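During the reporting period the student researcher (J.K.) took over the structure-prediction task from the postdoctoral fellow and processed the backlog of single-chain submissions. One of the processed entries is reproduced below for the supervisory committee.
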Amino acid sequence: MPELEHAFSPALLIPDFLVGEVQSKLAYVDENIRQAQVAPAGDRITLYLQRPADQPAITELEEKTQRVVLSMVKGAFKLKVQVLEDHLDRPVPYSSDPHSELLARGEISPEAEGIYTLGPLLSRLILYFESLFLELADTFSAEPYRFPTLIPARYLERVNYFQAFPHSLSFVTHLRTDLDAIDHFSQHAACEPDGSLNTPPDSFAPLQTLLSPAVCYHLYFSLADQPLPAGKVTATAVGNCFRYEAINLTSLERMWNFTMREVIFVGPKDFVLDNREAARVHMSRVFAEIGLAYRVESANDPFFIGEFRKQAAFQSAFQLKFEIRARLPFNESTLAVGSYNYHQDFFGRRLNITLPDGTPAHTACVAFGLERMAYAFLSQFGFETAGWPAAIREACS
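J.K. obtained the following structure tokens:
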């Protein structure tokens, strides 16, 4: 009998510290999966399907799922989490999920999976938080930059992005510069019931461009293949970022299209590390004034299956990434609203960004997710502005 739900045991017991990571990666196993669950004990996987699947299809789903499990679990060990700040116990006045209220107020309007239009309240909150991050940038005399939304494929290839994060890429193309192809499209183009265009793939030009996954990459590429001006650079920019997360896309917590404000440091090792730490100390004071409940802890980027274990361990061992995780009282979880990142000399080596002595430059960036920041604030303080910190209440009135 065709199945819409299939449960089975993983090839290896999934340890508790990997349950969430494995579950998130199962989103990429097959297009027919609408939800994947790993039991808390790590001994059971349940796949919920979009369409009924016969036995050969179920067997294929199991085989692909077991590949993910074996790749991520075999030889895995628990990474030590270093906590730099812990303010999760700060009292906050709200404990409901703001998502339904945002929908009811017209503050979020879903356009497609992971894509939202934001209303006036959220927009004012985002402007306020961005003003705080701009004040941080000003303390370092950061130079302002504006970067494009598009990024060339050859740039991402140069920094190994295709190997590390292939699952999250968003591709851009256009019709071939051919009159017949353009005429055919204009006369016959239409959307299928699932929203996809009915246009044949050969109508499109070769893929050479993507939607940018991060703000700081553009600065590094602008500095490539040359000595670093004045030996160091401090910059700030805001930009749209795009990371596809399949069925993991949910509310403002995980969006396909989101906005980041970054402060970026390029120069000698001590310069970038000292500034990363100074930025953390500065933001600690800012978050205390707001009353935000959060913690700062070591973390890793969402590398794809084949790269996950090696790269996550590397980031942890060298303390390369620390996340600002805001408390979500409605489900007692946390949400990463920002991060303090150190890339060592990776971009300096890959892009030939050199210091005056000829050695590769080091890089660091401090990044804040603006939509997530607003969402976390509403999760803790709700919609009654009388209970908001005075500065935020005045800015958003």
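The committee noted the following: The radius of gyration is 23 Å.
J.K. will present the remaining backlog at the next meeting.
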